[in-house]
Amino acid sequence: MATQRHLTIADICDDLGISRRTFHEWKAKGRAPRCIKLPNGDIRIRRTEYDRWLEEREEAAA
User: Fold this and answer.
1) Is position 10 within any domain?
2) What is the distance between the alpha carbons of residues 43 and 12, in angstroms, rounded to a whole number?
3) Is residue 52 situated within a structural domain?
4) How confident is the model at residue 62 (pLDDT cuts 50, 70, 90)?
5) pTM
6) Which CATH number belongs to the domain containing residue 31 in this structure?
7) Is residue 54 situated within a structural domain?
């Protein structure tokens, strides 16, 4: 995944190998990385937030 400041849901789903539906289920349950809702309704995730979220999952799995 190219280094970007903000990621789309598609970027996250591609990186994790999950469906958009799974991402939205995680988001509804509070298990997805923190999202930013843009005025047009699109959602973005800060790269730093995604990296932090992944590290938490890795630590929990260890």
Assistant:
1) yes
2) 11
3) yes
4) confident
5) 0.86
6) 1.10.1660
7) yes
